[in-house]
Design goal:
265 residues, alpha/beta, ten-stranded mixed β-sheet, 10 strands
């Protein structure tokens, strides 16, 4: 039964891929809403901590009047133990989210193209400028060490072939002058899953060694699950090394399933 958990997530991924393909001819705003709900509620929600919610809306600093150009985020993963959210509709978790509680933002695309990847990278860079409010009892140095702004991308299709997807993303990072840390997980279903991972005291890009679309999506869910547990530990200053808490990424994909991704020159 060692593959039971993985097989369960793969089944959910297969269903999500089939549904996205069936809906793709309907080019209107409602399609994005359905994809967002599908990913948040059916794929991610079962594998996140019970104190974490998935919402959509706007992320703000809370003590500044600055507003981002990208005012609507597809999926905002927020920690309800860190800060309350300001929900417009509680049933769909739509509203305004204070950045202190935001563990991750995920953009959902039905079909990725150059404009969409550019918008994602620019929004990810902008997200890092929001900053956070440091409680009076916490040292600023401690807070800066444990606060990471994470952006991830999930696309159900692309106008590129698998061999050129990452090169376009890397080129856009350079063009926008965006740090790799700003957007550390990208999954383009059918083309690949890439993740910025620790390697010999550095962080390098790795690609999942599979061309299977359902495995790519299932592993995206797994690494997001692990990332959220890790982010919670960081924000509560436990640190991942001091906690047994982990997501399903503890079980799959294994270290052997990743290969280092060379950065295009």
């Amino acid at each position: 039964m060692k593959d039971y958990l993985r097989e369960r997530v793969v089944i959910d991924a297969q269903h999500a891929i089939a549904l996205a393909a069936q809906q793709s001819p309907l080019e209107h705003s409602g399609l994005k809403g359905r994809l967002r709900e599908l990913v948040a509620q059916q794929l991610l929600r079962p594998w996140l901590p019970p104190y974490v919610g998935c919402g959509t809306g706007t992320i703000i600093h809370g003590l500044k009047d600055d507003f981002r150009k990208s005012t609507q985020d597809d999926i905002i993963v927020y920690d309800q133990t860190l800060m309350p959210s300001i929900l417009i509709q509680e049933s769909v978790a739509e509203g305004v989210f204070l950045n202190n509680s935001v563990l991750c933002r995920i953009e959902i695309k039905s079909r990725l193209n150059a404009k969409e990847i550019s918008n994602f990278v620019e929004a990810s860079k902008e997200f890092t400028t929001i900053a956070y409010v440091v409680p009076p009892q916490v040292q600023h140095e401690t807070a800066s060490r444990h606060f990471i702004s994470r952006s991830c991308l999930l696309a159900f299709g692309s106008d590129l072939q698998p061999g050129t997807e990452f090169a376009r993303f890397a080129k856009m990072l350079k063009q926008v002058q965006c740090s790799h840390e700003c957007c550390s997980i990208i999954c383009v279903v059918g083309n690949g899953l890439w993740m910025l991972r620790p390697h010999n005291d550095l962080r390098k890009w790795f690609r999942l060694r599979t061309a299977d679309a359902a495995q790519q999506l299932a592993c995206f869910v797994a690494v997001i699950s692990n990332t959220i547990f890790q982010a919670h530990c960081e924000r509560t200053v436990l640190g991942p090394s001091n906690s047994l808490a982990a997501g399903i990424g503890l079980y799959f994909p294994t270290q052997e399933e990743w290969e280092e991704q060379e950065m295009p020159s």
